[in-house]
């Protein structure tokens, strides 16, 4: 937490958790997608579901998916803008997550190229968020750093491939997490970095054997 | 945490012969690896956004629930008639606080300070002080460092979230931050800022978060008025040399403790207090049918 989490952010009301946090979740999901979105299914849980409408949570999420940030005055008009930009979206009552945080949303996205992405995120208050699942595997990151997410087979050597690439490109690792669904199964590494990763390095990773999917959150506009 | 208590901030200020706000500015420079100029210009941007929000109030806007909007204009007209019991200065403070609360509910652009629900307190107090006492933006930004330092200590030791600590953690914290800022603006010492903060927070201990239909509307908007007025009177007390008998950090800890033992029905769940009054329930049912 820094002083501009206390005085700030500049945001469209009415709620830092239900509005600003929701825009941010949408925005980070849009950045993770890395391409315009053609359709979005959004599942609301807990207080997002109970009081989201009155807080504009639904409009805030769609605004974020369109690439708006929390201070964009067009947030209240996001449904109309989505229609213009041919982004189809539907909202559902969330089910099936065990003990979700009060402000949770699951978002299933399809990009214009057909690329799919599923994100589960929580709004923690004060506009801060946590991305807690990507494509069904647990994660834990805030979206405050350039973040690399690599889905790979649970085999020796993939972590080295990724981290030595980062070393080569002078990208320092701020935090790193590893998860898997079972020994030898699907694994995911989440790496938060102090610098942006060059695009060609991301592309190079995508072609390595044993790497199933690479998702990158760039903070550059 | 480096600045875990107001006591540490006051000690550092005394040892280094600096003001409260400079200690916070330097902390920010280290924390975010940025320059003094950059930090200061970000703070000025926050104040600029507060002034823009104040200027762009629209009395015709209503919130999506249609429950709130337009009260700022009523208060404005009342004060313009010269009939405000608490005088023009306090009248303007109240007007700005209610307008900002309404703008927030109507999905306008505001500055969360520390939260969106309490966004009216600091700007109401700071903008009105600037106007009446001819203060520069530079001076107001310094006061915002005092406020954010107080807010950081409160967030670290207690909470600034209504869901965690009730409204005392939101309006209470905003009021404590604003009280410290006003004490600074009126020439008070760092010690006086800390005691203004303690007095303001003590006055709002136990304040519950029980908004009708879970919306940041009833009673949140009018609570911004109370937070702002309380900040001014608490600063006056501290500037007169009156101290909080309970030291500021202990008051903050008490707020955190009260928040922990407060029933969850009164912490932003819509299950107690005003939210479940007959009228509160009627409003909730009506909104759910929409």
From TrEMBL, chain A:
GO terms for biological process: gluconeogenesis. Its cofactor is [4Fe-4S] cluster. Keywords: 4Fe-4S, Gluconeogenesis, Iron, Iron-sulfur, Lyase, Metal-binding. Pfam families: SDH_beta. Residues 147-221 form the ACT domain. The keyword 4Fe-4S applies. Signal peptide: none annotated. It catalyses: L-serine = pyruvate + NH4(+). One of its GO terms (molecular function) is L-serine ammonia-lyase activity. Gene3D superfamilies: 3.30.70.260, D-3-phosphoglycerate dehydrogenase, domain 3 (3.30.1330.90). The keyword Metal-binding applies. Belongs to the iron-sulfur dependent L-serine dehydratase family. This is L-serine deaminase.
TrEMBL record, chain B:
The lineage of its organism: Bacteria, Bacillati, Bacillota, Clostridia, Lachnospirales. Pathway: Carbohydrate biosynthesis; gluconeogenesis. It comes from Anaeromicropila populeti. It catalyses: L-serine = pyruvate + NH4(+). Pfam families: SDH_alpha. Residues 15-275 form the Serine dehydratase-like alpha subunit domain. Its cofactor is [4Fe-4S] cluster. This is L-serine dehydratase. Its EC number is 4.3.1.17. It is an enzyme of class 4 (lyase). GO terms for molecular function: 4 iron, 4 sulfur cluster binding; L-serine ammonia-lyase activity; metal ion binding.
């Amino acid at each position: 937490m820094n002083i501009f989490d206390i005085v700030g952010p500049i945001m469209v009301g009415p709620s830092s958790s239900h509005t600003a946090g929701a825009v941010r979740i949408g925005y980070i999901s849009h950045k993770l997608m890395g391409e315009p979105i053609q359709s979005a299914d959004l599942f609301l849980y807990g207080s997002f579901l109970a009081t989201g409408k009155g807080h504009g949570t639904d409009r805030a999420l769609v605004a974020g998916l369109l690439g708006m940030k929390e201070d964009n005055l067009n947030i209240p008009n996001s449904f109309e803008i989505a229609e213009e930009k041919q982004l189809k979206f539907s909202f559902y009552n969330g089910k099936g997550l065990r003990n979700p945080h009060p402000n949770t949303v699951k978002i299933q996205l399809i990009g214009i190229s057909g690329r799919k992405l599923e994100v589960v995120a929580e709004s923690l208050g004060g506009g801060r968020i946590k991305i807690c699942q990507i494509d069904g595997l647990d994660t834990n990151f805030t979206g405050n750093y350039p973040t690399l997410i690599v889905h790979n087979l649970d085999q020796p050597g993939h972590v080295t491939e990724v981290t030595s690439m980062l070393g080569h490109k002078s990208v320092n690792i701020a935090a790193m997490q590893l998860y898997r669904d079972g020994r030898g199964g699907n694994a995911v590494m989440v790496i938060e970095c102090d610098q942006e990763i060059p695009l060609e390095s991301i592309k190079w990773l995508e072609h390595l054997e044993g790497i199933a999917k690479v998702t990158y959150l760039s903070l550059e506009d | 945490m480096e600045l875990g208590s107001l006591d540490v901030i006051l000690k550092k200020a005394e040892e280094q012969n600096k003001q409260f706000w400079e200690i916070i500015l330097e902390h920010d420079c280290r924390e975010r690896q940025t320059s003094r100029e950059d930090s200061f210009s970000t703070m000025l941007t926050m104040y600029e956004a507060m002034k823009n929000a104040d200027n762009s109030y629209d009395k015709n806007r209503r919130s999506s629930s249609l429950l709130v909007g337009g009260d700022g204009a009523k208060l404005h007209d009342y004060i313009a008639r010269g009939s405000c019991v608490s005088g023009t200065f306090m009248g303007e403070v109240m007007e700005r606080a209610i307008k900002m609360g309404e703008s927030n509910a109507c999905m306008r652009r505001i500055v969360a300070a520390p939260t969106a629900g309490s966004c009216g307190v600091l700007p109401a107090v700071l903008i009105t002080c600037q106007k009446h006492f001819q203060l520069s933006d530079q001076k107001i930004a310094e006061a915002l460092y005092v406020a954010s330092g107080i807010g950081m200590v409160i967030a670290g030791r207690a909470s600034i979230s209504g869901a965690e600590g009730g409204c005392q953690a939101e309006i209470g914290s905003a009021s404590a931050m604003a009280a410290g800022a006003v004490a600074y603006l009126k020439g008070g010492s760092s010690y006086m800022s800390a005691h203004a903060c303690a007095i303001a927070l003590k006055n709002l201990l136990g304040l519950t978060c029980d908004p009708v239909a879970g919306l940041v509307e009833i009673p949140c908007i009018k609570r911004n008025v109370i937070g702002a007025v309380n900040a001014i009177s608490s600063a006056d007390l501290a500037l007169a040399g009156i101290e909080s008998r309970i030291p500021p950090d202990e008051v903050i800890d008490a707020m955190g403790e009260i928040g922990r033992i407060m029933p969850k029905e009164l912490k932003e769940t819509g299950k107690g207090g005003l939210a479940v009054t007959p009228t509160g329930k009627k409003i909730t049912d009506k909104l759910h049918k929409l």
